[in-house]
Design a protein that fits this description.
The protein is an alpha+beta fold. It has 2 domains: 296 residues, Beta-galactosidase, Chain A, domain 5; 435 residues, GH92 mannosidase domain (GH92 mannosidase fold, 2-Layer Sandwich), CATH 3.30.2080.10. The strands form 12 sheets. Strands 8-9-10-11-19-15-14-13-17 form a 9-stranded antiparallel β-sheet. It has a 6-stranded mixed β-sheet with strand order 20-34-35-39-36-37, covered by helices on one side. Helix 6 crosses helix 7, helix 8 packs antiparallel against helix 10 and helix 10 runs antiparallel to helix 11.
Length: 757
């Protein structure tokens, strides 16, 4: 029997392996939207089961149930429709789910069927008792056909192993219609070639979140194909002279908008069939080369363990001791989530498809994609500046390549698979670039980086930016979500200041210094809130600070966004009446109640992710608990840290209080559990909190070691009486990255009571 005990997978490798503390099922139940399948760190292939085929559209409008399937897998579902090779982790919108494979025995069925009636299609029932997952390995029993399905990967290749009853006739269905956030017409074109009796190649082009996305594949079997065919589900009238062939039966070319193909295999005594499935952003030839280079053999277990060694290497960059095993599992699962994306996006020869849809060659860097920057600039990329410096450097090079290929031109906003999808607000690539420059991670061509950032921040067609430059704020009567945009633009402009400072460009520095103060233009002294302003200079009437919709904010309200001035906190405090008044306002956010009417319209926020008015289940307020450090009551930062760490994360399928958003929610946890956090990426400072760990060794990428010790650590000792860096007392509740990067010992002396002031 294939079992998971307490949802914690046990590694078959050495006893010291950290993958045994990873629970891939955390976040598989609605909020979190993670997937439990197989992937190597930052791998292009993210191979996972999909449990249903919910469409994006319902009766001519958006189907709210599709939101639950952002990653394809729902823990409470009773059936699996198959295993697809591309997934997002924790996003609030979605795409991908490419190339779904499903093995069956007996009668061939090409329709997926329904969860209520799985016999009507190729899907299968499954049970969590017969399901097992750990990094780079997934296994499940497909009950209806009695097939044990196992998955593992290399960076660009998915490896399937199916075990079934001896002498069973096996069908492998390749569903080229399946996708995540699917709708009629999403498939632009699909093409399949049966190259020989074991190799199949092809591609699929889709119009979804990425409106022009093409993915190529090469699929090979370890047994010869006996029969194959396909069925078209589109209504294409014109067939040309292909009509002279019986295309659906053993014809080696398949093409159409909507296709499901099948491959049948003769029975034998082995009771096993293996499939390798490689991806490429460039060509089928590239996919074949990726396949033969990365997995030239048929040793499934070797591939599994090679990938798990990669995970152990990455997880070992931070070794922690915690008060209990659940905390350790949550910590290493957070690291696992944080190292899933951005993903590799080039072939083994360095070729990749660019934003201009041409083929480019990466020169001196590895190309990445999936940049959820509104989320990940806050903590994920700063985490990379500690423990993934080479990759973060290459991610910035990938962003600059995106800029060079952009016709606008702009750096990425939210990009994936050679497409800009323009999701969310701001231009937060500049924050990622500034943070890496300030911390010494990116030192290549600062003039090039500054030019890309300045042009991005000057593109007049982008999201109210022209009016922002004209008025000094985004007017609500000209562009919605105006306050959120103004505040985030002002922070991004401050980030550009930091690059200009490092580049020695005083003209750009002064220009963006002025723009960085634009947050002041949307602060209403009378109400005490950031508030939408109209182009005539007056504040928008009928203001409700608890409401999100129509109030000038996106995925937040005036309470969440009211504290979003991370680059000028002291001026914000003075503007809001000084430290005492500011601390009282911070207190209010944790004790007032957000009524259900203000939650109901936000599908990515539930009450599970809320404390008072503080919404930890979404990103805009992630820095708020640390702001007590700028008042006379820093112990409240420590208090709230421990409350959030213990209540917003759990070792369970519903263990994330909101979308993980490509690792941001998890990166927040890692920083905060270690005892510090980058409140303002682009600066050298971290704010100190209250560590959850007892002890941690952080292996920095410069071969230095950062050791963190929490003396007298316990569930009750949540306050920090004293902090020492290399034996010297810290008295300002902050520590510098430039100090930590040198290695050393950070000691927190914990207590039940706040430190005397």
């Amino acid at each position: 029997m294939l079992v998971i005990s307490g949802f914690v997978a046990t590694s078959q490798n050495a006893g010291n392996d950290l993958i045994q503390y990873v629970n891939p099922f955390i976040g598989t139940q609605r909020m979190g939207h993670t997937f439990p399948g197989a992937a190597v760190p930052f791998g292009m292939v993210q191979l996972s089961p999909d449990t249903d085929t919910v469409g994006y559209e319902q009766n001519g409008s958006y189907n709210p149930f599709v939101y639950q399937y952002c990653a394809g897998y729902q823990y409470d579902d009773p059936t699996i429709v198959g295993f697809s090779h591309t997934h997002f982790s924790g996003t609030g919108h979605s795409d991908l789910g490419d190339f779904l494979i499903m093995p069956t025995t007996g009668k061939l069925q090409l329709n997926p069927g329904t969860a209520d009636n799985p016999e009507s299609g190729y899907r299968s029932r499954f049970s969590h008792e017969n399901e097992f997952a750990e990094p780079n390995y997934y296994r499940v029993l497909l009950e209806d056909c009695g097939i044990s399905a196992e998955l593992t990967t290399s960076a660009r290749v998915g490896f399937h192993r199916y075990t079934f009853s001896k002498n069973a006739e096996v069908n492998v269905i390749l569903d080229l219609m399946h996708g995540i956030y699917n709708y009629d017409g999403k498939n632009v074109w699909t093409f399949v070639r049966v190259e020989n009796d074991t190799l199949v190649t092809g591609y699929r082009q889709t119009n979804g979140w990425a409106r022009t996305r093409t993915v190529y594949f090469a699929m090979t079997f370890d047994k010869p194909i006996k029969n194959y065919g396909h069925k078209k589900y589109d209504n294409t009238i014109y067939r040309g002279f292909y009509r002279k062939f019986k295309e659906n039966d053993n014809f080696p070319e398949m093409a159409g908008h909507d296709i499901r193909a099948f491959f049948q295999f003769s029975s034998d005594e082995s009771g096993m069939l293996q499939v390798k499935f490689a991806l490429s952003p460039v060509s089928t030839a590239g996919a074949v080369k990726n396949l033969t280079t990365e997995i030239p053999h048929w040793d499934f277990d070797k591939t599994r363990y090679n990938g798990q060694e990669l995970w152990n290497r990455e997880l070992s960059k931070i070794r922690v001791e915690t008060l209990n095993e659940d905390d350790k599992t949550i910590f290493y699962t957070a690291m696992y989530h944080s190292f899933l994306s951005p993903v590799l996006y080039e072939d083994v020869d360095g070729s990749y498809r660019g934003l201009d849809q041409n083929i480019h060659q990466s020169e001196g860097f590895t190309n990445y994609t999936v940049f959820s920057l509104w989320d990940t600039y806050r903590a994920l990329h700063p985490l990379f500046n500690l423990v993934q410096t080479t990759r973060n450097h290459d991610m910035i090079k990938s962003m600059l390549a995106h800029f060079d290929q952009s016709v606008h031109p702009m750096l990425p906003v939210w990009s994936h698979y050679a497409n800009e999808n323009w999701c969310m607000i701001g231009y937060h690539s500049v924050s990622v670039i500034a943070d890496a420059i300030v911390k010494g991670i990116y030192q290549d061509n600062l003039e090039q980086a500054l030019n890309a950032c300045v042009k991005t921040a000057s593109y007049p067609l982008y999201d109210g930016l022209n009016d922002y430059i004209k008025y000094g704020f985004v007017p609500e009567d000209k562009s919605n979500n105006s306050v959120s945009k103004t505040l985030e633009y002002a922070y991004d402009d401050w980030s550009i200041m930091q690059i200009a400072l490092k580049s020695g460009d005083s003209r750009v520095y002064k220009q963006f210094e002025k723009r960085s103060e634009n947050y002041k233009n949307v602060y209403d002294y009378q109400s005490g809130f950031m508030r939408p302003k109209l182009s005539n200079g007056s504040f928008r009437p009928d203001f409700d600070p608890l409401n999100t919709h129509g109030q000038g904010f996106i995925e937040g309200n005036a309470w969440n966004y009211g504290f979003y001035v991370p680059h000028d906190i002291e001026s914000m405090i003075a503007m809001m009446g000084g430290k005492t008044a500011f601390a009282e306002r911070l207190d209010s956010i944790f004790v007032l109640k957000l009524e259900d009417e203000h939650i109901a319209a936000n599908e990515d926020i539930t009450r599970d992710g809320i404390i008072g008015l503080y919404v930890h289940g979404n990103e805009p307020g992630h820095h708020i608990p640390y702001l007590f450090n700028w008042t006379e009551e820093p112990h409240k930062t420590q208090q709230h840290m421990r409350t959030i760490l213990s209540s917003m994360y759990a070792n369970a399928p519903d263990g994330l209080c909101g979308n993980d958003d490509c690792g941001q929610m998890s990166a927040w946890y890692i920083f905060s559990a270690l005892g510090f956090y980058p409140v303002c990426p682009g600066s050298d400072e971290y704010a100190l909190g209250s560590p959850l760990v007892k002890y941690a060794d952080v292996q920095l990428d410069n071969n230095k070691m950062l050791t963190i010790i929490a003396e007298n650590q316990s569930q009750e000792n949540i306050y920090v009486n004293e902090v020492l860096w290399n034996g010297k007392v810290i008295d300002n509740h902050k520590i510098l990255h430039s100090d930590l990067a040198k290695g050393g010992e950070l000691v927190f002396r914990m207590s039940k009571a706040p430190a005397a002031r």
